[in-house]
């Protein structure tokens, strides 16, 4: 009969192709999945921070972005302490130095983006203001 | 060009699901190309061109991290060197740098470009395995201070994923590309650093920039890398992004030199006490996924470039070859123009052609050729087509009625009733010029010629769609036909206008009814029975082209599918001798390439054009496009001139690239899928408006003009 060229009489070809199409679609979706997975950012780094107790050789300086460089924190921290002066938020309202802060920085939690070092910074404020 | 009527099969619905797959495929292609384009976008080097204004508050150390939103910096102690290498990993130079470091037993820090880590994961692993630090230098060597925040985060996140996937480690260190020494940072740099260090990474600037990427000579690099007065320093060098032979040579001299001065070498992580933590399983999976997708994108880009090159060569070669053939065909000496005066029977199969039939019949009997009989075969019309013809009461016009049986059956009926030995087959919507029949039968002066193709032209070309089809007919069909005529392998005599010897039709077994393109099928069968097919380009028939996209789609769907059926049916011609072999080895491959394969790849080419818009230089894209368009326009202008047509419709050519071109290839996709799936194709019919009929008076006025 006319138009029978190409016509799939048994329906077998159609079934096979349907499975192939499903497989191809799955592969394509998988490829898009790779992209999406690759684009997702990981969690903020569980950074141990620059440590106050190891590896940093003596003599390293510390510095801040701020109105003026501040002298180093007490040499009690062997790693060469770091200091920070927030340029925007005036620390005037903050409480005076917490003497245990430097020590607390060595028992910092395992993750975070450096906030655990905050206590180290605090003692520096009065110094800064003094200087 | 079969135009016809066959409301007989109750078919399965046209397949549709493949469009989902098709769209998905194009989406993946575009995403892969775009990602590859993005990943390749990186440059290299350090320092920006031009002078930069420094920040009011420069950083005082090369190591920068965020501490509660503030930037805290550190420096190296005296007599300590941290070697840092940017822009790698590079398959050529990074191994050499690593070899030098290994020979001197010195650790270093590599700031790798994330996309290159994906390309060279083994090198990244070697860097880590040999005790060096592997930090991030963004994914594409992007200038973070000039980038939007989302881009900064993307660059850093992608690179962290890439390093985690390749090495299983996190990357706590990063160096901003184009970064300068801590004292030279600009306000924008500071803002970018503040933002970028917010995710916990430590930025590493450099104390001494060796400028090795400018290749200033080994001595200059060594000099630039030596700190003054025993100060500690982070040295900036490069192991990627260009020829780094000077860097390798300088390194080999620099290390012993500094060691003699009492310098100690350290990695940045050791200096800061920030070892790279192991990446979690999820992070590593993300990195692996990213690497695979980047590899997929690179592969797709390679394949597409090759495909584009092939398509371009084929397309341009076709145009040039067609134009050459047409030029040769037009110059060739013609047979004596008025030699054949034998009687002619014209057969008009008609199914619901009330709008055009009167004009068609009138145009057939009013012509130059004597002894023309017209047989209108009414194929079960319901709109009184046959009555219209009978009421005309014209001498020499007969009406044969049959129950609806399809166009091939109607033609065969007409052939049986016809008395003459020369038969002209005409569609019921076609209008002839007075000289058409006479010109059409002239090639029969050659006894080897079994059939002649006329030149079908679009009558309704006022609107844009009609004008596009007019151009397509004149360029494609006219140039194609002249080329086929020169190569003696014409695959289709259009159903609108063709002449046949009775003996040839008998040899072919009449008009075949087993494909949807009975005109192509018949023409191919004639070749295979040994007849020659001629082209009479001055035998002009005016036909009504589809006026809406939907009708155009249906018409081309049927042509495409029918042509594929006919090619498949006559595939044995590939191995035949004589005219059949010419068809099989010339016309069939040509049709397969230019009417099936290239249209099937055209969507990918369009996706590549979108990619080009995003990632290629605009002038390059514009130049390429204009060149192609110009070539097309010149060919089209030549074809229009050959046909004695006005050049004015050429202005619509650029607009053909949007919409018309897409419809033309999508319909081939649909036809190919239908063929592969094995669905039955419904026979669609065009709604006639009588546009060709409206032409009749004009033609009589213009005769001799065309």
Q: State the shape of chain A.
A: rod-shaped
Q: Which two chains share the most extensive interface?
A: A-B, 67 and 93 residues
C-alpha end-to-end distance of chain B: 22 Å
Q: What portion of the residues of chain B fall into strands of 2 or more residues?
A: 5-15%
Q: What string gives the helices and strands of chain A in order? A: HEHHH
Largest sheet: spatial strand order of chain B: 13-12-11-14-17-16-18-15
Portion of residues in helices of chain A? 25-40%
The total count of strands of chain A amounts to: 1
For the secondary structure, the number of strands of chain B is 18
| Uncertain segments of chain A | 52-131
Uncertain stretches of 5 or more adjacent residues of chain B: 1-11, 699-706
Strand count, sense and barrel status of the largest sheet of chain B are: 8 strands, mixed
Number of helices of chain B: 23
Mean residue pLDDT of chain A: 55
Which assembly state applies to the chains in this document? heterodimer
User: Which structural class best describes the helix and strand composition of chain A?
Assistant: mainly alpha
Average pLDDT over all residues of chain B: 88
Overall morphology of chain B: elongated
Radius of gyration of chain A: 31 Å
| Rg of chain B, Å, rounded | 37 Å
Describe this structure in words.
The complex is a heterodimer of chains A (about 130) and B (about 700). With about 130 residues, chain A is mainly alpha-helical. Helices cover about 35% and strands about 0% of the residues of chain A. Chain A is rod-shaped and about 75 Å long. The C terminus of chain A is likely disordered. Chain B is of the alpha/beta class and about 700 residues long. Chain B is about 50% helix and about 15% strand. Chain B has 23 helices and 18 strands. Chain B has an 8-stranded mixed sheet, with helices on both faces. Chain B is elongated, with a radius of gyration of 37 Å. Chain B starts with 17 loop residues before the first helix and ends with a helix. The N terminus and C terminus of chain B are likely disordered. At the A-B interface, helix 1 and strand 1 of A face helix 1, strand 1, strand 2, helix 5 and helix 9 of B.
């Amino acid at each position: 009969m006319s138009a029978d060229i190409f016509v799939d009489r048994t329906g077998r070809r159609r079934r096979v192709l349907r499975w192939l199409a499903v497989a191809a679609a799955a592969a394509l979706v998988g490829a898009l999945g790779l992209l999406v997975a690759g684009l997702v950012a990981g969690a903020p780094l569980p950074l141990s921070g620059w440590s106050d107790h190891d590896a940093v050789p003596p003599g390293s300086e510390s510095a801040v972005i701020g109105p003026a460089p501040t002298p180093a924190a007490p040499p009690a921290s062997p790693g060469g302490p770091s200091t920070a002066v927030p340029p925007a938020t005036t620390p005037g309202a903050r409480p005076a130095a917490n003497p245990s802060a430097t020590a607390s920085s060595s028992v910092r939690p395992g993750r975070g983006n450096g906030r655990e070092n905050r206590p180290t910074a605090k003692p520096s404020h009065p110094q800064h203001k003094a200087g | 060009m079969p135009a016809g009527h066959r409301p007989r099969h109750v078919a399965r619905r046209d397949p549709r699901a493949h469009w989902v797959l098709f769209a998905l495929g194009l989406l993946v292609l575009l995403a892969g190309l775009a990602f590859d384009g993005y990943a390749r976008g990186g440059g290299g080097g350090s320092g920006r061109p031009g002078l930069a204004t420094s920040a009011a508050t420069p950083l005082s150390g090369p190591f920068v991290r965020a501490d509660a939103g503030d930037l805290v910096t550190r420096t190296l102690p005296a007599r300590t060197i941290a070697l840092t290498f940017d822009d790698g990993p590079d398959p050529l130079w990074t191994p050499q740098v690593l070899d030098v470091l290994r020979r001197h037993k010195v650790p270093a820090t590599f700031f790798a470009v994330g996309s290159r880590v994906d390309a060279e994961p083994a090198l990244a692993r070697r860097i880590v395995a040999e005790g060096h630090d592997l930090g991030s230098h963004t994914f594409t060597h992007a200038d973070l201070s000039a980038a939007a925040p989302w881009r900064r985060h993307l660059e850093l996140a992608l690179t962290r994923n890439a390093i985690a996937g390749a090495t299983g480690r996190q990357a706590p260190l990063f160096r901003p590309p184009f970064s300068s020494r801590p004292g030279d940072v600009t306000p924008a740099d500071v803002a970018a650093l503040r933002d970028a260090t917010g995710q916990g990474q430590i930025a590493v600037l450099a104390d001494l920039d060796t400028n090795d990427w400018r290749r200033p000579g080994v001595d200059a690099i060594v000099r630039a890398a030596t700190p003054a007065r025993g100060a500690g320093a982070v040295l900036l060098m490069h192991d990627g992004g260009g020829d780094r032979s000077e860097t390798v040579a300088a390194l080999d001299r620099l290390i012993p030199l500094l060691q003699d001065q009492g310098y100690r070498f350290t990695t940045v992580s050791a200096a800061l006490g920030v070892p790279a933590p192991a990446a979690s399983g999820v992070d590593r999976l993300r990195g692996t996924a990213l690497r695979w997708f980047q590899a997929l994108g690179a592969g797709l880009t390679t394949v597409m470039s090759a495909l584009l090159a092939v398509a371009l060569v084929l397309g341009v070669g076709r145009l040039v070859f067609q134009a050459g053939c047409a030029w040769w065909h037009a110059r060739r000496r013609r047979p004596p123009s008025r030699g054949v005066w034998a009687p002619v029977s014209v057969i008009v199969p008609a199914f619901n052609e009330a709008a055009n039939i009167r004009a068609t019949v009138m145009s057939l009997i009013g012509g130059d050729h004597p002894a023309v009989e017209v047989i209108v075969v009414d194929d079960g019309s319901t709109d009184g087509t046959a009555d219209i013809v009978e009421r005309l009461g014209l001498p020499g016009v007969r009406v044969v009625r049959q129950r609806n049986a399809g166009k091939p059956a109607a033609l065969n009926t007409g052939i049986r009733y016809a008395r003459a030995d020369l038969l002209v087959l005409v569609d019921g919507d076609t209008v002839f010029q007075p000289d058409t029949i006479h010109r059409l039968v002239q090639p029969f002066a050659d006894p080897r010629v079994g059939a002649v193709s006329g030149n079908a032209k679009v009558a309704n070309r006022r609107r844009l769609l009609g004008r596009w089809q007019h151009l397509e007919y004149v360029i494609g069909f006219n140039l194609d036909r002249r080329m086929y005529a020169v190569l003696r392998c014409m695959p289709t005599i259009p159903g609108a206008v063709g002449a046949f010897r009775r003996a040839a039709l008998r040899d072919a077994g009449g008009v075949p009814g087993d494909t949807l393109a009975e005109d192509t099928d018949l023409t191919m069968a004639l070749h295979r029975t040994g007849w020659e097919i001629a082209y009479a380009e001055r035998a002009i028939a005016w036909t009504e082209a589809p006026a809406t996209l939907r009708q155009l789609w249906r018409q081309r769907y049927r042509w495409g599918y029918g042509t594929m059926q006919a090619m498949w049916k006559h595939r044995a011609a590939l191995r035949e001798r004589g005219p059949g072999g010419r068809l099989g080895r010339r016309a069939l491959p040509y049709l397969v390439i230019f009417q099936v394969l290239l249209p099937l790849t055209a969507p990918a080419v369009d996706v590549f054009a979108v990619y080009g818009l995003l990632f290629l230089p605009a002038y390059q894209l514009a130049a390429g496009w204009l060149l192609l368009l110009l070539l097309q326009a010149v060919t089209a202008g030549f074809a229009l001139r050959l046909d004695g047509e006005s050049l004015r419709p050429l202005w619509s050519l650029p607009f053909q690239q949007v919409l018309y071109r897409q419809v033309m290839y999508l319909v081939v996709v649909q036809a190919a899928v239908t063929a592969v799936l094995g669905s039955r194709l419904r026979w669609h019919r065009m709604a006639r408006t009588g546009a060709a009929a409206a032409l009749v008076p004009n033609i009589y006025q213009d005769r001799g003009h065309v």
